[in-house]
Automatic annotation (TrEMBL):
Residues 11-291 form the Tryptophan synthase beta chain-like PALP domain. This is Cysteine synthase A. Signal peptide: none annotated. Its EC number is 2.5.1.47. The keyword Signal does not apply. GO terms for molecular function: cysteine synthase activity. It comes from the Bacteria. Keywords: Pyridoxal phosphate, Transferase.
Amino acid sequence: MITPQGTDWLQTPVVELDRLFEESSARIVAKLDQLQVAGSTKERTAAFLLDGAEADGRLSAGGTVVESSSGNLGIALARHCSLRGYRFIAVVDDNANPAAIKMMRAFGADVEHVHPADGNLLAARRRRVQELLAHVPGAVTTDQYGSAHNPAAHASSTMPEFLAAAGELDTLFVATSTTGTLVGCQRYVREHHLPTRLIAVDAAGSVLFGGTAAPRKLPGLGAGILPALHDHAAPDQVVSVAEPDMVWGCRRLARTEGLLAGASTGAIVAALAGHLARGGAADGERIGLLVHDSGVPYLETVYDDEWVSLTYPHQAAAALDSSAPLPPSSAARAAG
């Protein structure tokens, strides 16, 4: 097998989105990390987490890796563990997309489900990880929630790649869950004294950045407990996005730019729509966004009209109308 050197093998294209919000004078560019081999930016995270565990001496040939995942990291770790000869156990919850679970298993992962009575999915997944570590001989966790190797992936590859292709950015929208991507981008921006303004996009119902916990149906964005990396996150602004708005954002991106992305990217599109509508963008502002993952695992949820109508009955009509200038929540605020 040819072993990749450096991070060149992780590079993905940067494209201009000139159809997404045609009326805006802002220049909007996107880094297409849904084109990673594993289908998301977690390809970067998985590689760096495993490299770190090997370098630290915690993980050796034939070892077992255990990690909590809402989907994307599980897919990427399953792929990389298969390549490196490790057993991988993914701990998931009922919000994980069925397609994502099938992809993990296709790469050889063992998948454990948790069904918490209290509804705190992330806390339950992390408890199960600790139980498995105690019972599986020699097992280690890559700890995406606290490992410094998580943000290092984005400080070392995502941001330098993005800026090399797009030039200087005035504003960058980043979806948050572990906050690893945000912290890595933040580190690069501030170490290089760049003027880029960082906007963290969170899910309504997430406890990140002072949010209040509430039930959520879509995986990959937000958190039910504060991850350790959150202590290092200091974005310039935080935008909380409701799930029907994420649906609108995904469909808007698909219908205008032909890009099929996951819910976290839909949240970014919705947050950007509000930013532009409120006059947040200066004339000619250069705005960057990360397309964090593919929309393929969401075909049975976000892109399924019946699922959307049953899950969000009061907001479904607005969420499904990708031609509307604003997502449901922003449209309601504007009307009010």
